């Protein structure tokens, strides 16, 4: 049984190296043998996790569901052990231009909506699934314009949402979907000029990333890893820069109650079905 | 529960300042109910609170619940000394912070080699800086560049040669403080400020001497190996106190006599004006050097011996060089003479001899102020470079 935590993470930005190098040094000081492997996309990471290349994966919400569903097919069990405080209770919004006559969801019928990359939970899958659950089927009841930036990174790259926002302001589309925090950021930085947009709808809350493990990981090793993370304090000047880079104030125990919206959406759209078939049929 | 009304102000246009202020007024766990007319208020407030570790309830009206997470940044923060008076030793962990500021813990140490008060400080620093800042002049307007004058060809050549010599000395006088400026801990901000203004003074001197040299000629005069070798020993001195002693007390002190000489004997109004203004600046450079070295010598008993040693070493390094170049010496004589008439040359020669005596007297006086006895002051003054600076 290995006594080393090998974390898998997706290299969506150069800062990812800074983050995990920092964690590696900090874990070493705490006496935990920790290393990390970087992947170019989440599908590669989930497969590698099942292949034992890593024993913990820093998963996007979609990657979490991929691991959960792949586990179900292969007779393995995935668990979400830790997440960030900032991963909990997110919402996405659908936004239209002010004065364009779009005030409620029903007004989106027959219109065009810009979204992020096709695998972005927050900017594509969750808002589209949520609209569908309100009787607005994408492609049938409204047209979808996707921004396929950094596909495989599950929307970790903000580019897709920014493009959707620009499409809206420049009237190439009638509405755009984005996470609540980006609506605030784009409004504050002028991408969405003050007063130029209205929020047509807001999804219920959902959760974002988590550290995922599979059955078979050494229990004591996992317990040590989890308790070290949960013990990290924003007060600690050695840890604080790492938490700031990773965008959290404190770690929380993992929960899986916040993935239902995304689960419904990918079931509805069949988003990962063919990937699951391919991966689960591998020799 | 506290209630905050943002009116029409959104979080995308600064509303978070009011939310932050309201949160500061409740205890940890306290709730602030936020009302306002912005339709995006609830959406934005949720995202804002989540990003800062505060709790959130959607309402309506939405409520933010204060946590202590944001305040934790300041646990372990330290004051970067006392705003009113610099510390004995400035800490590398203060970095570039203003003196007396609160510095977040965890800053990577920023090492400045000169971080000890005794090495660099003088209680006169703030006053000397203020005086220097108030005495800045604009070369464009302070000097009457259009003043008409006509000099004999040879006298103009002599002026150009003296300017050429002055310029390379001014360059050394700029580089030396500028190099130490970057090595001094910014906790001692008055010292940084003094050195910065001193460098700016030298920049002006370079400008006006260059402008005078090129006023009637297409190029400056001659630059000798001996003159440059002497200046280079100043650039190479790594110790702040010793560099300051050699440059400011002995070098710029001697230069002061030279500039006064040129202000008196300069054959044209522009030469007299620029050397008068430069001399005023140099007097401050000498005053700062003397002031911090007196302060330093009171605290380091061995400093005087080190200073004497530095003069001897520099003498040894330069004794086989030509010293002051003949071109400059002769140019000074001719410049003071104003013509080729033998009687005038004799007067010019006497004036230059008097200049050297004046420099020697000045050096001995300043050495005495640093605590050297008369005999030692006389010996050290005689060992000072023949190149003046
Ligand atoms: Fe000067
Ligand atoms: Fe000077």
Question: Could you please describe the fold and organization of this structure?
Answer:
The complex is a heterodimer of chains A (283) and B (389). Chain A has two domains: 5-87 and 207-280, Periplasmic binding protein-like II (D-Maltodextrin-Binding Protein, domain 2, 3-Layer(aba) Sandwich), CATH 3.40.190.10; 92-202, Periplasmic binding protein-like II (D-Maltodextrin-Binding Protein, domain 2, 3-Layer(aba) Sandwich). Helix content of chain A is 39%, strand content 19%. Chain A has helices at residues 15-29, 42-51, 61-74, 121-133, 159-169, 180-189, 219-230, 240-246, 260-269, 273-280; strands at residues 5-10, 34-39, 56-59, 78-84, 92-97, 112-114, 143-145, 175-179, 197-202, 210-214, 251-253. In chain A, the strands form two sheets. Chain A has a six-stranded mixed β-sheet, sandwiched between helices. Chain A has a five-stranded mixed β-sheet with strand order 7-6-8-5-9. In chain A, α4 (121-133) packs across α9. The longest helix of chain A is centred in the N-terminal third of the chain and has 15 residues, at 15-29. In chain A, 46% of the residues are buried. Chain B contains 14 helices and six strands. In chain B, the strands form two sheets. Chain B has a four-stranded mixed β-sheet with strand order 1-2-4-3, covered by helices on one side. In chain B, strands 5-6 form a two-stranded antiparallel ribbon. Chain B is mostly helical. The longest helix of chain B is centred in the C-terminal third of the chain and has 31 residues, at 269-299. The radius of gyration of chain B is 30 Å and the shape is elongated. In chain B, α1 (15-24) links the parallel β1 (2-5) and β2. At the A-B interface, α6 and β9 of A face α2 of B. One fe (ii) ion is lined by residues 170, 173, 201-202, 205, 278, 282 of chain B.
């Amino acid at each position: 049984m290995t006594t080393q935590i090998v974390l898998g993470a997706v290299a969506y930005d150069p800062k990812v190296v800074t983050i995990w190098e920092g964690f590696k040094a900090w874990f070493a000081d705490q006496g935990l043998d920790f290393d990390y492997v970087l992947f170019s996309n989440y599908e590669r990471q989930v497969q590698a996790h099942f292949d034992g290349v890593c024993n913990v994966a820093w998963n996007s919400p979609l990657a979490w569901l991929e691991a959960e569903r792949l586990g179900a097919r292969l007779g393995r069990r995935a668990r979400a052990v830790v997440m960030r405080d900032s991963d909990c209770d997110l919402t996405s919004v659908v936004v239209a231009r002010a004065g364009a006559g779009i005030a409620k969801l029903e007004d989106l019928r027959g219109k065009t909506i810009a979204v992020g990359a096709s695998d972005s939970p927050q900017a594509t899958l969750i808002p589209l699934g949520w609209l569908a659950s309100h009787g607005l089927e994408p492609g049938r009841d409204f047209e979808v314009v996707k921004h396929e930036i950094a596909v495989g990174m599950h929307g970790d790259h903000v580019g897709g949402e920014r493009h959707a926002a620009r499409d809206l302001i420049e009237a190439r589309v009638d509405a755009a979907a984005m996470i609540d925090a980006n609506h605030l950021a784009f409004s504050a930085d002028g991408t969405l000029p003050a007063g130029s947009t209205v929020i047509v709808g807001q999804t219920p809350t959902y959760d974002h990333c988590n550290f995922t493990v599979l059955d078979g990981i050494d229990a004591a090793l996992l317990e040590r890893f989890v308790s070290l993370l949960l013990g990290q304090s924003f007060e600690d000047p050695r840890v604080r820069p790492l938490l700031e880079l990773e965008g959290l104030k404190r770690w929380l125990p993992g929960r899986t109650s916040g993935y239902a919206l995304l689960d419904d959406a990918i079931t509805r759209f069949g988003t990962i079905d063919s990937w699951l078939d391919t991966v689960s049929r591998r020799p | 529960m506290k209630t905050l009304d943002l009116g029409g102000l959104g979080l995308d246009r600064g509303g978070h300042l009011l939310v932050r202020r309201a949160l500061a007024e409740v205890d940890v766990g306290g709730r602030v109910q936020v009302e306002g007319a912005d339709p995006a208020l609830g959406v934005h407030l949720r995202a804002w609170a989540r990003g800062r570790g505060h709790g959130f309830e959607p309402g309506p009206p939405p409520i933010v619940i204060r946590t202590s997470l944001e305040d934790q940044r300041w646990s372990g923060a330290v004051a970067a000394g006392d705003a009113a008076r610099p510390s004995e030793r400035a800490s590398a962990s203060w970095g570039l912070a203003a003196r007396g500021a609160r510095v977040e813990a965890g800053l990577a140490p920023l090492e400045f080699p000169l971080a000890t008060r005794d090495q660099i400080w003088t209680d006169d620093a703030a006053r000397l800086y203020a005086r220097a800042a108030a005495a800045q002049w604009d070369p464009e307007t302070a000097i009457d560049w259009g003043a008409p004058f006509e000099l004999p060809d040879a006298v103009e050549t002599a002026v150009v040669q003296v300017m050429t010599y002055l310029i390379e000395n001014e360059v050394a006088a700029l580089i030396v403080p500028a190099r130490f400026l970057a090595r001094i801990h910014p906790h001692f901000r008055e010292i940084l400020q003094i050195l910065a203004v001193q460098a700016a003074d030298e920049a002006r001197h370079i400008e006006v001497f260059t402008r005078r040299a090129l006023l009637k000629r297409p190029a400056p005069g001659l630059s000798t190996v001996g003159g440059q070798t002497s200046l280079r020993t100043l650039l190479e001195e790594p110790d702040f106190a010793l560099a300051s002693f050699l440059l400011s007390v002995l070098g710029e002190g001697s230069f002061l006599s030279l500039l006064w000489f040129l202000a008196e004997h300069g054959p044209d109004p522009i030469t007299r004006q620029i050397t008068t203004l430069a001399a005023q600046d140099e007097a401050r450079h000498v005053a700062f050097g003397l002031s911090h070295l007196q302060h330093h010598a009171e605290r380091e008993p061995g400093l005087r011996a080190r200073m004497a040693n530095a003069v001897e070493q520099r003498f040894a390094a330069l004794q086989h060089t030509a010293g002051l170049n003949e071109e400059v010496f002769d140019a000074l004589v001719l410049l003071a003479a104003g013509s080729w008439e033998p009687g005038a040359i004799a007067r010019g020669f006497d004036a230059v001899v008097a200049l050297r005596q004046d420099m020697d007297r000045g050096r001995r006086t300043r050495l005495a102020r640093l605590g050297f006895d008369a005999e030692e002051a006389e010996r050290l003054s005689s060992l000072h470079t023949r190149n003046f600076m």
